[in-house]
Amino acid sequence: MGLRAVARRSRTSTALLVGVALVSAACGARVGPYLGAGGAAGSQVGAGSGSGPGASGSGGATQTGSGPVSQSGPTAAGNGGKVIGAPASSGPAVPASQLTPANFPYSPAQQAALCPGAAGNTASDVGVTSTTITLGNVSGLTGILANNFEQGSEAVQALFSAINAAGGICGRQLKLLVEDDGQDAGKNAADIADEIPKVFAFVGSLSDGDNGGVQEMVNAKVPDIGVAINPNRGVSPVYWSTNGSTYYVVNGHPEIYNSFTNGLKALAKFPTKIATLSYSIPISASAGQEFQNLFVHEGAQNCFTDFSVSPATASLDQDVIEMKQRGCDGVFTTMDVTGNAKLLQAMQRQGFHPVYEGTTFDGYTPAQIEVAGQDTAQNFEAVLPFIPFTDNQPEVNLYQQMLQTYEPGKQPSGFGIESWASAEMFIYALIKAGHNPTRNSLTQILQSIDSWDTGGATAPITPRMRLPAGPCTMDVIVRGNNYVRKWPASGFFCNGQLVPVG
Predict the structure, then answer these.
(1) Rounded (5°) CA angle 414-25-142
(2) Between 20 and 30 A from 201 (CA), which of 52, 119, 215, 374?
(3) Per residue in 312-360, pLDDT tens?
(4) How does pLDDT run across 387-432, given as a tens digit for each residue?
(5) Strands in 347-497 per DSSP E
(6) Residue-range domain boundaries for the chain
(7) If you ran DSSP here, which 8-state letter would residue 45 be given?
(8) Which residue has the higher pLDDT, 365 or 145?
(9) Residues 249 and 232 sit within 8 Å (Cβ to Cβ)
């Protein structure tokens, strides 16, 4: 599933996934705004635990109650390359008028308390009544790729349920209207058009057909907060995300950050001969090509590619046999959990164990280990633009707890936490919009946000710039029955520059 950063144009096919906002392209040679003017190569942002380069990792129904009071980290702007993002206590909630991304509380109870009661509420805009706000979500719940895109709506519903249980925002209950586009761009456009007259904004939509309804949202000036798969959504003027945009092109050619490969080099795990696999689905194939080009640009030899894997393929043994014969010592995939599992199983059968084997954050889910088999999945890696679940980071913990409480049986995932983080940013803007929010006032608040980092859980980003989340990234590896942090030792690895990959 692959590189959101490099899909070149809107497609109506069942495209695949985001993958690596962490090594994404940016406009020109600009540095991400969160590094600040003095941002140094090799800096780390955020806080966590684990082992760094050079060392191995270690072993909506409404309900009562709410998540634990969490913490908010400092913003990253102008940090001068220092370690930032260590959570600071949120303390008592400040007045809504004084909220900033740095002091925003991540407790549903505190969020509800920032604007209590329905006094003065009116039906201020589409989807808003005095007692409810209806939000839209169009996701690929069914289609050629199973168990991927429902993760966004699950995360958003968990957050909304927790806030509703605490009293709602300004006395209003949050309702999520979810429609299934079947991972088809035409159906996506129809579903978006159906919801626009009913919803205040879109939150957490997730589909490889999400290019379909973009123009409808732009025409209606309805805010779209979530995780984009296709590039036209990622650069839309009504799109807002904690995960950044999809890609930027420099002089007609894609460029991406090499933070990921620099991290592998620091760990002495950079492969000399790289194999790259993707699905035949256009976005996945484009992503595979871009990753191959990145590795080659950084000094690896291309030993094998297969950008035409069918999601229905029975086995990848022949691919693995060829990799082994050609002396490949690294393999990277832009497929999903199922494709990755087939690759790992074939590698196990063929006794192929390269120096590096990894994927994008779509593979960061317990399902990846379960589907592949625990023994088979050992040493498989994923690159992430967020703090891993094993780091005991407060906001990451809160996401997992809310999911378990309000969406029981659902597994935490990369898509899930990215959607949850964007939904929290929506809640921030909604609170600041006050008792009578409008689409325009919500947009103005989203436009004003600087250095959002979800309390240290995600790489800091300024949403209005619609830059990718790079150059900050990190890596996890399967140890036992879980992924654990591998590098850097804490926070994010921010040693990277833009390099051409097409």
Answers:
(1) 40
(2) 119
(3) 999 999 999 999 999 999 999 999 999 999 999 999 999 999 999 999 9
(4) 999 999 999 999 999 999 999 999 999 999 999 999 999 999 999 9
(5) 356-359, 381-384, 474-479, 482-487, 492-494
(6) 4-20+39-56+254-388+470-500, 71-91+100-248+392-465
(7) E
(8) 365
(9) no
Q: Which helix (H) or strand (E) holds 309?
A: strand 301-309
Domains 4-20+39-56+254-388+470-500 and 71-91+100-248+392-465 share a fold: yes
284: left (phi over 0), alpha (psi -120 to 50) or beta: alpha
Give the single-character DSSP code of 167.
T
- Amino acid 273 reads K
Q: Name the token pair of 145.
A: 């790729």
DSSP structure class, residue 412 = P
**Nearest alpha carbon to residue 366 among 486, 476, 204:** 476
Report the alpha-carbon angle 270-26-476, nearest 5.
35
**Per residue in 379-413, is it b (16+ CB within 10 Å) or e — as a string?**
bbbbbbbbbbbbbebbbbbbbbbbbebbbeebbbb
Radius of gyration of the chain (CA): 21
Q: Cis (ω within 30 of 0) for the bond into 388? A: no
What confidence tens digit (pLDDT) does each residue in 14-57 have?
Answer: 333 333 333 333 332 222 222 222 223 344 444 433 333 433 33
Is the omega angle on the peptide bond into residue 311 within 30 degrees of 0, that is, cis?
no
CATH topology classification for 4-20+39-56+254-388+470-500: Rossmann fold (3.40.50)
pTM score of the predicted model = 0.81
Whether 50 and 57 have beta carbons less than 8 Å apart is answered as: yes
